[in-house]
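From the methods appendix. Each design record in this collection lists the tokenized structure first, followed by the designed amino acid sequence. Records were kept in a plain field format so they could be parsed without special tools. The example shown here is representative of the layout used throughout.

RECORD:
FOLD TOKENS (226 positions):
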């Protein structure tokens, strides 16, 4: 654990065209924000303005860069860096496939119950993804007192799990919605979760909520609710 202290704001990219189509995007090129996602990114920019970050680190994938673009346009003096350690999981042959199809495969249940044991066909394992993303967080702590990391649902869940001392096996116990902010305070004495899946800045867009007892797909983070 580093001696310095920082507050890390973990921002999931806003709603994408893949979310709208119920596709597991992975690293498929050309996945942009949806109309809804562009509206979310504008509201997110206003919230990030209040948080006043010194540094923004982003996955190099298009949907993450588009998510932070409104904030970057209004705050050109903030330090911006692309960091591939925060890019989406490599889902291998699952990338670009419909979630309805994938959820019928035998591997799906293993992903939900014990993701630590899973490697995607011709892709990355959850353990590998967790190791590289948390390596990025370790370095991020030394970049400033307030750092925004723009990333993806499963990546953010792996960071949260690791920072509170949980194994990757528990990764699916979290929901991380599009354009949400989860906040971690990290210092030499350990990590504290200050907020999880905060979407209060999107309240003006919300028209519905998850009904009691209803479950949501969590692979890739899910598409959220409005």
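DESIGN:
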């Amino acid at each position: 654990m580093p001696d310095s202290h920082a507050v890390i704001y973990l921002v999931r990219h806003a709603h994408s065209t893949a979310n709208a189509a119920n596709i597991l995007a992975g690293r498929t090129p050309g996945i942009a924000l949806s109309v809804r996602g562009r509206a979310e990114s504008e509201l997110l920019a206003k919230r990030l303005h209040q948080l006043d970050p010194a540094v923004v680190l982003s996955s190099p994938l298009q949907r993450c860069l588009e998510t932070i673009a409104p904030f970057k346009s209004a705050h050109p003096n903030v330090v911006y860096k692309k960091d591939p350690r925060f890019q989406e999981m490599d889902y291998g042959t699952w990338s670009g496939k419909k979630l309805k199809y994938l959820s019928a495969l035998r591997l799906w249940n293993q992903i939900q119950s014990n993701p630590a044991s899973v490697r995607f066909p011709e892709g990355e394992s959850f353990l590998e993804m967790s190791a590289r993303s948390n390596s990025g967080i370790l370095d991020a702590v030394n970049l400033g007192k307030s750092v925004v990391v723009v990333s993806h649902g499963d990546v953010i869940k792996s960071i949260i799990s690791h920072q509170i001392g949980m194994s990757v096996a528990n990764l699916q116990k979290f929901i991380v919605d599009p354009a949400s902010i989860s906040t971690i305070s990290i210092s030499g004495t350990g990590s504290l979760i200050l907020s999880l899946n905060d979407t209060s800045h999107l309240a003006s867009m919300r028209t519905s909520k998850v009904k009691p007892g209803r479950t949501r797909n969590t692979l890739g983070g899910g598409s959220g609710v409005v």
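APPENDIX NOTE: The chain has a mean pLDDT of 92.
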